Amino acid sequence: MLFSIMRNEWRTLLAERSLPAIGLLLALTIGYGIYNGQAWVSFMRESLAATQAEYAERTQKLQSDFLAYEAGSKKPVGFSDPRGASAVGGTSAVPYVALTPGPLAALSVGQSDLYPYYFKLSLRSKYLTLSNDEIENPVNLLSGRFDLAFVIVYLYPLLILALTYNLLSSEHEQGTLAMTLANPVTLKTLMAAKVLTRGLALTVLSLAILVVAIFGLTLTGNGVAWRLALWAVVMLVYGAFWFVLAVGINALGRNSSANALLLAGCWLCFALLVPALLNLASTAMYPVPSRVEMIQAMRNAGKEAQQRGSQTLARYFEDHPELAPAGGGRPDFASLSTAAQQEVDRQIQPILYRYEQQVSAQQILVDRFCYLSPAVLTQQALNDLAGTGIGAYRHFNQQADRFLKTWQDYFFPLIFARKLFVSAELASLPRYVEVPEPGSDIVRRVLLSLAGILVPTLVLTVWAIRRLNRYRLAA
Amino acid sequence: MLEAVELSKSYGAHQALHRLNLRIDPGEVYCLLGANGAGKTTTINLFLNFVEPTSGTATVNGLDVTKQALESKRHLAYIPETVMLYKNLTGLENLEYFAALSGLPAYSQAELLGFLQEAGLQAEAAHRRIGGYSKGMRQKVGISIALAKKAKALLLDEPTSGLDPKASNEFSELLKRLSDRGVAILMATHDLFRAKESGTRVGMMKHGRLMESLSTSDIGHADLEQLYLRHMHD
Asked: Where is average pLDDT lowest: A112-121, A180-189, A312-321, B48-57?
């Protein structure tokens, strides 16, 4: 019975040409989305490769300069000695910390065009070195890129709704529902068959397009298989949500245009309104300190610290007695400026702290209310799987902070001890080793998002079945 | 085959059908006459379980249509005023689908074409889309569905309204053939002539009540019209 109805549905869908049209649209958008994402990832990889090349060239030159100093063929020149710890740790030997794009990064650009994915280190606070981000089109930043995740989160539901908004109402309107229900078949069976036909067609179609696209991309790296599997599950569950919603709305017994309007309203609400409101609420409730405020504070602190000069240094040594040089004597420029910089960093610390507090408060708010919209949850899950979500960047920032601390702890004592490096020591400077975010953390977050989509889907299913049971053909 | 016992349906204060008692045996063609809103369509919808009765029972082949909803529909075929089918599919594809819905084992293409032919549809039309069919052709597909379903009871809601006299006559012939095979037929109609011609019994309804029920052999065309008008006037 179910199969007979499905076969008939398949025939009508083909005869109406709606399915081929939707299939073509899906193929085009998925193809374009993947192409776009791939272009962005290539750009990121090229940027990272460029930083690595720059670092290699710089350190090589440093090495040869040092060898020349040691051989006596070249004299160290400059305002401060290039062999000094301040010069080596502050500029000439600083490495990059980078977040390498994950294996599925091309599928979801996520936050990767908003957050810096590499830093050039210095001895200063990380926030002061953030001038090296890309110049990006603000429209892209505002609306997000047209990537595969965008297709799935925003366009896929629209295609589903185009296929399902009149699932029951059209049968009623063209009179075929009465002919059908004069047979030993229940409305539930009929609807199940209709949903299954469209669901299977769309799922098979999109998975096929995805497989073709992915083979085209030749994704490699850690955990491609489980990431892709979860990606498919997220897509399936998210699709199921929209299907069930359409069935429920159809079961209300209104006409096709009313259904279309209601469903478009739902899409608008879940895909646009809730995310926008969430964004607005989080920034309105927990505003971050303005950048102007921070720059102002930095200037004031900097001016004061420089004016005081040796006083600042003395106070710094009071706070860090272990760094004070044993011999005493007149402080050199590197010590003075490092102490001054540290003083500035210390004074702007409250603003940075408030900034981080506010950002995390915003995130907590979003984490709590994202369950209002399956679209937001899906976007998060897809970003997580692509390694371009908030979680990945949080992990990266922690790593960067930790390495910055290591770097500073290594160099500060050497600056105050007026250490001069020799060529042999350059190879043993602290090195940044990128630790990818543990897969278990990602899976946990994705499963949480999945549950957040699954629960309303199940609730909607129960509601839709109840409405179908109460549906009356003739009022 | 079709039986209504004290069957009533009311929508709030409006009584659409009031304590209908009716029994249609195999081979009988019962024509329900009456003005619009007299309760003819409500009666048919009650037998189809499209609406729930307020009280009383409707049975098909002894099966209560509300309690054994699916089972009772195995024996029913329904032909509304305009047989609505999937307009993008051919007559044959439509028949194939509705025959499959009846739950009987699948028919071969030749058998399905046989049913369409038996219902009087031209062979070349079977492979054309329903969208281009006339009303009479759709009715024929409706009949072929009833044939394929091997229905024991046929419910018709004003099937001949809007058909030209020739098509209407062909339709009556088909009904006669079905009744000869022992199908019980309940037909709501405005067509007194058709009711006298193809019906074995006629019933007159007004304001949800069955006012009169008589055998067509007992009454002439003119008398039937007189009787009908008398009922409708007072």
From this structure: A312-321
Residue numbers in A near B71 (CB within 8 A)? 184
A376 and A240 in a common domain: no
CB < 8 Å to B41, chain A: 474
Per-residue model confidence (pLDDT) at position B13: 87
Position A321 scores a pLDDT of 76
Domains of chain A: total: 2
Distance from CA of A19 to the nearest CA of B (A): 14
CA-CA distances (angstroms) from residue B98 to A118, A474, B190? 64, 21, 28
Residues B40, B209: Cα–Cα separation, whole Å: 10
Looking at the fold, whether A42 and A87 belong to one and the same domain comes out as yes
Residues in chain B where the model's pLDDT stays below 50: none
Task: Name B153's bridge partners.
Answer: B76, B184
pLDDT of residue A62: 93
* Cα gap B98→A1, rounded to integer Å: 11
pLDDT in tens, B199-212: 899 999 998 898 88
Which candidate from B51, B70, B83 shows the least CB-CB separation from A184? B70
Determine the length of chain A: 475
- The pLDDT of residue A475 is 46
Pairing between β-strand B209-215 and β-strand B201-206 as defined by DSSP bridges: antiparallel
Please enumerate residues of B whose Cβ is less than 8 A from a Cβ of A.
Answer: 41, 45, 48, 50-52, 70-71, 73-74, 76-78, 80, 82-89, 93, 97-98, 100-103, 129, 145, 149, 155
pLDDT tens track for A342-362: 878 887 788 778 888 888 898
- Per-residue confidence band for A262, with pLDDT thresholds at 50, 70 and 90: very high
Is there a single domain that holds both residue A182 and residue A204? yes
Residue pair A96/A51 in contact (Cβ under 8 Å)? The answer is: yes
pLDDT at A471: 87
- Return d(Cα A408, Cα A104) in angstroms, integer: 34
Residues in B closer than 8 angstroms to A5, CB to CB, are: 97, 101
Using alpha carbons only, what angle is made at residue A48 by residues A43 and A54, rounded to the nearest 5 degrees?
A: 125
Task: Using CB atoms within 10 Å of the CB of residue A76, give its burial: 0 to 12 exposed, 13 to 18 middle, 19+ buried.
Answer: middle
Structural domain span for residue A255: 2-32+148-266+444-470
Tell me: pLDDT of A326 over 50: yes
CB contact under 8 A, A179 and B77: no
Q: Which of B41, B45, B103 sits opposite A1 (nearest CB)?
A: B103
Q: What is the CA radius of gyration of chain A?
A: 30
Cross-chain Cβ contact B101/A4 below 8 Å:
yes
Residues A25 and A41 in one domain: no
